[in-house]
Predict the structure.
Amino acid sequence: MSSRVVDAERERRKRDLRSRIGRLRRRIDGRIRLAGREARRLGCWQTYVRSYPGYAVTAALGVGLAASAGLSAGRLWRWLGLRLLRRAADGAAGRFWQELKQVWADSAPRSDQAEANGADDEQA
């Protein structure tokens, strides 16, 4: 083989590797952006008020009753308010953990057969 053929083959391999690295970087960047959006969504209290309005109203009622009973001598109202607040918090916490587990499962790397073989998906 002549040196020009070897050099051309080497350059083609370099281009192929650079192309593959570029695709992998874009894929990783997309996954990082998606994870950032999910983190912001999970950290926003409005998400949970929209998703679980019943728990939000119950918690607000509980806080209001407990706070108003703290200003007066209403032990029954304080007890009721704290009980409502605890029940809403327990229910919302259970849902929160379910949602967090789902996000974790969705963000786990997939072991596609194509990735196992070293091939990449072509992105348009």
